[in-house]
Design a protein that fits this description.
single chain, 5-stranded mixed sheet, Immunoglobulin-like, mainly beta
């Protein structure tokens, strides 16, 4: 398994430069033309601490006329123009410029300086960065414009976890037509692939009986992933930056689009190759919704055996909100037109980019209870 290059904060500050542009990258050893932040399919890992200052020198060098194979300029696919922006997914930072303003439009050839004040109470865990410009998100994320963010602390300080070997698995979902990545689900033949750290079906080396800490990102815009291990024992430690009170033993790990999980794995005592399988399932009633059973990676167990270590049982103290006063009850209905023409939330279509519409206003620190109902034929 390839290690992801990391940029780490020092003295409370992390300065990075991000340059989206078309590049030739390797996906599973194959040269492919794509839109990326650097020489690899995924961006570098940003490692920060609560209270840090994150500064991003953003340089948009996407060509104005670039329209990847399989795309056309309608409301569902990336129009020409090379517009983009940046979103730090999950970080509790200001939504205003020059911080996490998702309505910002950075044209091709333009530069912008983002400044993020990471709050002192930011939850440690794993997050990620990607574009958020309407009409462009799907294609640009498919093409590789995404990278991991790690916030130090939390599980790092738990004995029996913080001292384990730390493995990052950044799972992406893309399609290749010829030698070009594309988000199109309409052009065939296309090869749908699930790279991990830019590799296809990498091997995660581990000793018999050894425990390791796996950090997994589903850096996809729409693909659900269900991972079924074929060997070893697995415990979920955290989801989306939220550390669980106690580890949860699992035999099937499900990650929705954009979701992250931290997992403790204990290798089998017998050396061998143990695949991590994406199970077959159908997330929507179309040919493109069928997710075939494929091998994502392999737990490669070899070398001197280690004595199995106990799994820590107390990870964090979570506030129990079940008895908290409810400030507001809300109902959210997800709907779509037949033929996937339009999607609705409570009967309203998402506003065009640059038009800000507010569905709910909530007061920070209050507790609400939401009933969410999915009336569509696909997973959400």
């Amino acid at each position: 398994l390839r290690e992801i290059p990391a940029s780490e904060s020092s003295g409370g500050v992390l300065n990075v430069t991000l340059t989206p542009r078309t590049r030739t990258v390797l996906i599973g050893g194959r040269k492919v033309s794509s839109q990326t932040y650097g020489p690899n399919l995924m961006g570098d890992s940003w490692v920060i601490s609560p209270g840090d200052q994150l500064n991003v020198n953003f340089r948009n060098r996407l060509p104005v006329g670039y329209l990847p194979s399989g795309q056309w300029a309608d409301k569902w696919f990336q129009p020409k123009g090379g517009h983009t922006n940046l979103h730090v997914h999950g970080l509790h930072v200001s939504p205003n410029a020059p911080s996490d303003d998702i309505f910002l439009d950075i044209p091709s050839g333009s530069n912008y300086r983002y400044h993020y004040a990471i709050p002192a109470d930011q939850k440690p865990g794993i997050y990620w960065y990607h574009p958020h410009t309407h009409h462009y998100v799907d294609m640009q994320t498919f093409a590789g414009q995404a990278g991991p963010i790690v916030v130090r602390g939390g599980l790092d300080n738990v004995p029996g976890i913080g001292n384990l070997r730390d493995r990052q698995l950044f799972i992406q979902n893309t399609m290749v037509v010829g030698n070009t990545t594309t988000a199109s689900q309409s052009e065939v033949p296309a090869k749908r692939i699930i790279p991990i750290n830019g590799q296809i079906q990498p091997k995660v080396d581990i000793h018999p009986g050894e425990s390791q800490r796996l950090r997994l990102w589903n850096a996809s815009t729409e693909r659900f992933i269900q991972i079924r291990p074929t060997g070893g024992e697995y415990w979920i430690l955290a989801r989306d930056g939220n550390t669980l009170s106690h580890p949860q033993r699992t035999t099937l790990l499900q990650l929705g689009p954009g979701q992250r999980a931290e997992v403790l794995v204990r290798a089998p005592g017998t050396p061998g190759q143990y695949p991590l399988i994406q199970t077959y399932f159908n997330q929507r009633p179309t040919p493109f919704g069928k997710q075939p059973e494929v091998k994502l990676a392999t737990l490669s167990v070899a070398g001197p055996a280690q004595d199995p270590q106990p799994v820590p049982q107390d990870l964090s103290v979570q506030e129990d909100l079940r008895g908290a006063p409810i400030a507001k009850y809300r109902r959210v209905d997800l709907q779509q037109d037949p033929g996937i023409a339009d999607f609705y939330v409570n009967g309203k279509v998402f506003a065009a980019h640059g038009k800000i519409t507010t569905m709910y206003r909530m007061k920070l620190g209050t507790t609400e209870e939401w009933l969410i109902r999915n009336h569509t034929p696909e997973w959400h």
